[in-house]
Sequence to fold (217 residues):
Amino acid sequence: MPVQVITVITSYNVDHLEEIYESYQQKEIDEVLFSPVCPTSFNQTFIPSPEILYKNMKSLIENIVTRYKKGDFVKPKIRNIKDYLSLFLFPKNTETCIGCSSGISHPLLAIDLDGKVYPCDSFFGEEGMKLGDIENGFEKIIEEGNKIRYNRSIDQIENCNKCNWKRFCGGGCIAESYYLYKDIHHPTIYCEYNKKMFEFFASMLPSFLESGIENFF
Ligand code: SF4
Ligand code: SF4
Fold:
């Protein structure tokens, strides 16, 4: 069975991405997703600097691509590469929380231990974001679960509505916006990082093709 891991990037490990990747190579991990920590009101010191995050992610990915070009067998695969390439090659709706799910119309629902249902586990315990209780049936909850995402349109978010990358980015995580600003219409604090990564991946497309694009999926 393939082993996939998610590495949450924080201010404490952002300078060690290469080492972390190497440690996974030794442990026979198949795929890794590097995911910057989701900012909330209580973990601000964990948030990595967007500039350092970009520099180190770019360097990690460039090294991987160089190894593929040399014909090396590279494992684990980096899920971020697959995700960015998928966005460019198979664009889909990113207005909502689709990035966290493989579904399109019903991205994600999260059930807490007490049976309360939320649009995402990031909202566990937030009474105002509760969609219902599993004991009362799922049908209505599923509709509500979508509504919260439909209520957030990228075109309602200042700056995002004018951004060239808005259809790829989606403006970031709803939970992040909710916890930091108490409303769901703010761009992510990783905005500059996202823009640079989109630009970087666009510029790297020829290299990905040269290295055998199928290697990254
Ligand atoms: S890159 Fe920034 S401005 Fe553009 S859509 Fe994403 S969060 Fe909004
Ligand atoms: S709220 Fe954030 S973490 Fe939750 S599904 Fe949406 S984007 Fe993903």
Notes: The mean pLDDT is 87.
